[in-house]
Amino acid sequence: MFSKETYIARREALKKLVGQGVILIFGNNESPANFPSNGYHPFRQDSSFLYFFGQNRDGLVGVIDVDNDMETLVGDDIDIEDIVWYGKVKTVSEMAKEVGVNSSAPMKTLKTICNDAMAKKRKIHYLPPYRYDIKLQIFDLLGIHPNQQKDEASMPLIKAVVKLRSTKTAEEIEELERGAVIGYKMHTTAMKLTRPGILEHYIGGQVDGIANSYGAMVSFPTIFTQHGEIMHGNPTMAPLESGRLVLCDAGAETINNYCSDNTRTYPVNGKFTQRQLEIYSIVEACHDYTLQVAKPGVKWMDVHFDVCRLMIERLKELGFMKGDTEEALRAGAHAMFMPHGLGHMMGMDVHDMDSLGQTNVGFDEETRPILDQFGTNCLRMGRRLEKGFVITDEPGIYFIPDLIDDWKASGHCKEFLNFDKLEEYKDFGGIRIEDDVLITDDGCRFLGKDRIPYHPKDVEAFMANN
Ligand SMILES: [Mn+2]
Question: pTM to 2 decimals?
Answer without folding.
Answer: 0.96
